[in-house]
Design brief:
Elements: E1 22-23, H1 39-49, H2 62-76, H3 83-99, H4 104-115, E2 121-122, H5 136-140, H6 151-168, H7 173-181, H8 188-201
Helix pairs in contact: 2-3, 3-4, 3-6, 4-8, 6-7, 7-8
Length: 216
């Protein structure tokens, strides 16, 4: 499987929720680096994070959607015991990932590595929530009231940020994941995400067999 993903339009937003916050124990929690954004890029990202369409599974048939949700819900049950919330989480992951042109199973692997599926995780660098989004993004996109601990807000930001990094890295997932984690050029984090994706979240019909390699 190639790790270059076709380029699509990028998508992103944040705020601080005080209840139930704890430091993320994951050593690879994200720390995206703040950088200047052009007006055109900022406008695209702002549009991406402001979408209010209801999350839904993007499958050809209802049967396929139900089968996927059942399979992934079983895999996630030990990490998120509440069935109703777990299914809402999976619906949102699938919608936001697909909307951003990402594989939902990759996003699940990234969440496992970043936060261990802990909604209120906070890294030492200050990254927040499931996808460990850095707070500067909400300010950069002029949405300071966005709550990064809110399920859909966090996933939308995270997926949009990763899509943006993929675009500027010309589809190199290795480099995009490095940017997402703040460890560009180092293989440890991309390979950790790939391992979680392949071992725990790969679609039963598709597997990931090759290691993540630096772009030549």
């Amino acid at each position: 499987m190639k790790w270059n993903i076709p380029l699509l339009k990028p998508l992103l937003a944040l705020s601080f929720a005080t209840a139930g916050v704890f430091l993320c124990a994951t050593s690879f929690a994200g720390a995206q680096t703040e950088e200047a954004l052009s007006a055109s890029v900022k406008a695209v990202l702002q549009r991406a994070v402001s979408d209010q369409a209801a999350p839904k599974l993007a499958f050809a048939t209802r049967q396929e959607a139900d089968a996927w949700l059942h399979e992934m819900s079983q895999r996630l049950a030990k990490r998120i015991p509440d069935k109703e919330y777990r299914e809402d989480f999976l619906n949102t992951v699938h919608y936001e990932a697909t909307r951003a042109g990402l594989d939902p199973h990759l996003v699940l692997g990234l969440i496992e590595v970043e936060s261990g599926f802990r909604k209120y995780a906070v890294s030492n660098a200050g990254a927040r929530g499931y996808m460990q989004v850095m707070p500067f993004w909400t300010k950069a996109l002029h949405a300071p009231d966005d709550n990064l601990f809110h399920l859909r807000t966090n996933l939308r930001y995270g997926c949009t940020i990763l899509r943006y990094y993929l675009d500027i890295e010309k589809g190199s997932l290795y480099r995009a994941l490095g940017r997402y984690n703040g460890s560009l050029g180092k293989a440890a984090y991309p390979n950790l995400v790939k391992a979680a994706w392949h071992k725990h979240w790969a679609n039963p019909q598709h597997t990931v067999s090759s290691p993540v390699k630096p772009a030549s």
